[in-house]
Specification:
Blueprint: H1 21-33, E1 37-41, H2 48-54, E2 57-59, E3 62-65, E4 68-71, H3 80-89, E5 96-98, H4 102-115, E6 119-123, H5 131-145, E7 151-155, H6 161-175, H7 180-190, E8 194-199, H8 204-208, H9 214-222, E9 225-231, E10 237-244, H10 246-260, E11 269-273, H11 277-288, E12 298-302, H12 305-311, E13 316-321, H13 331-340, H14 342-346
Parallel strand pairs: 1-2, 1-6, 6-7, 11-12
Antiparallel strand pairs: 3-4, 3-5, 8-9, 8-13, 9-10, 11-13
Helix pairs in contact: 1-6, 4-5, 6-7
Length: about 350
C-alpha cells in the first residue's frame, strides 16, 4: 500500500461507511490539527477504511510467494477469502515474510524530516520481527543528519489489531494536545494495557514457520487440540491454554475478556480473523452480551498476509483495552525485568 496522503479530503475516502463514526471523528480532528506525523505499518491488521480515515502513513510490509515478493496493500489487490482459500487448497504452500530494511526506513524518515513535523513511528513488535531494530538504526542515522528533527520509534510490543487500537488512541491523544515527545511516553505506557487473545484452526502454519515442532502439529490435529494464544510483554507469542475443540477455545477467549476487560466502553474493541467470519460473528455476539458492551464500538478486520502467512486460515482474535499486562508477570519474570533495568528502556 502506498503511503496515505495527509492532504486527501476525508470525505473522498472509499469504504468510509465501514469506519466507525468515533474513529472517523478522531481521524478528522487529527487531520485538521496536524501538529505531528504518525507512521504505522500494515502488520496491525487495519480495517482498510479505518487506516484511510485516520490519515496516517502506512508502511506496507512484504511477503514472499512462489511467484515472488508482494506488498501488503490492505487487500486492495485481492480479497482475504481468495488469499486464505489459496492456502486451504494448497496445504504444502507456505509464504514467508521479510523485514523492512534500514534503507527503506531511512527513505521514509528522510521524507518525514523534509516535511518538518515531529514524527512518531509505531512498529511491529520486536518479539515477532527484526523490522523495529532496523527502524531504530535508520532513525539514528536520520537524527544525525537532522539533529533538530523530532523522530520517535516505538516497539508496540503487541500483535495484530492491538497495534491498530494503540494507533487510534495515540491519534486521539494527539488531537487532545499531547506533543510528540508526550505521545511517545504515553504510548510506551499504554501498550501494556492492550490485550489480545486468539485461536487457530490448526498448528500447520506455525509448524511450517518453525515456531513449533511438526510432530506437535500432527498430534494436535489428530486430537482436535486448539490453542488459545496471546502475547507477552515483549510482544512474543505466548500459549494461554490448550482446548479440545474450536468452541472451547472460543469460550476461553471470552472468559479472558471477562477477566481482563476494564469496561472502558468509550474505547473500541477489535475482532480480527483470517477468513473465519462465522466465528468472528460469534465472538461479537458474546462480547455484546457482557454488561455495558451492547453498544461498544467493535472494529472488524481481516488478518493481513503478513501475520496470515504465519497463522494460516481460520485464526480469530479478540483485542481490547484491559488491565496492565505487566501485573501478570511471574515473580521470576518481574525479577528479570528489574535486573534488565535501563536496557529495557533503551529498547523501547
Amino acid at each position: 500500500m502506498s503511503k496515505q496522503s495527509n492532504e486527501e479530503p476525508l470525505e473522498s475516502v472509499s469504504e468510509a461507511s465501514r469506519a466507525p463514526e468515533d474513529v472517523v471523528s478522531v481521524g478528522r480532528a487529527f487531520h485538521q490539527r496536524r501538529t505531528c506525523k504518525i507512521i504505522v505499518d500494515s502488520s496491525a491488521d487495519y480495517a482498510p477504511a479505518v487506516a484511510k480515515r485516520l490519515g496516517v502513513e502506512v508502511i506496507p510490509l512484504t511477503y514472499v510467494t512462489p511467484e515472488g515478493e508482494r506488498e501488503d496493500d490492505l487487500w486492495e489487490s485481492q480479497t482475504p477469502h481468495d488469499f486464505y482459500e489459496t492456502l486451504r487448497k494448497n496445504p504444502d504452500l507456505h509464504y514467508t515474510t521479510c523485514a523492512v530494511t534500514p534503507g527503506r526506513y531511512e527513505e521514509i524518515f528522510e521524507r518525514a524530516a523534509a516535511e518538518g513535523l515531529p514524527t512518531i513511528y509505531l512498529g511491529l513488535t520486536g518479539g515477532l520481527s527484526s523490522s523495529i531494530h532496523n527502524a531504530r538504526q535508520a532513525a539514528a542515522m536520520v537524527r544525525d543528519r537532522h539533529p533538530e528533527f523530532e523522530l520517535y520509534v516505538i516497539d508496540t510490543r503487541c500483535d495484530s489489531a492491538a497495534g491498530e487500537l494503540l494507533a487510534i488512541e495515540v491519534i486521539r491523544q494527539a488531537t487532545h494536545g499531547l506533543t510528540a515527545s508526550e505521545l511517545y511516553e504515553w504510548a510506551r505506557e499504554a501498550r501494556y494495557f492492550i490485550h489480545g487473545y486468539f485461536t487457530l484452526d490448526s498448528f500447520n502454519a506455525l509448524a511450517a514457520g518453525g515456531r513449533i515442532p511438526p510432530a506437535a502439529a500432527t498430534v494436535g490435529g489428530k486430537l482436535d487440540i486448539k490453542p488459545e494464544l496471546s502475547y507477552d510483554t515483549n510482544g512474543a507469542l505466548s500459549l494461554c491454554g490448550m482446548c479440545r475443540g474450536r468452541k472451547k477455545a472460543l469460550r476461553a477467549i471470552v472468559q479472558d475478556f471477562k477477566e481482563n476487560y476494564t469496561h472502558e466502553t468509550s474505547l473500541p474493541l477489535a475482532i480480527v480473523s483470517s477468513d473465519a467470519e462465522k466465528d468472528a460473528d460469534w465472538l461479537e455476539r458474546e462480547v455484546r452480551k457482557q454488561d455495558g458492551c451492547s453498544d461498544v464500538t467493535i472494529i472488524r478486520s481481516q488478518v493481513s498476509p503478513i501475520l496470515g502467512s504465519h497463522v494460516g486460515p481460520g485464526m480469530v482474535a479478540l483485542v481490547f483495552w484491559g488491565n496492565d499486562r505487566r501485573e501478570r508477570l511471574s515473580f521470576t519474570d518481574k525479577l528479570a525485568r528489574k535486573v534488565r533495568g535501563r536496557r529495557d528502556e533503551t529498547n523501547a
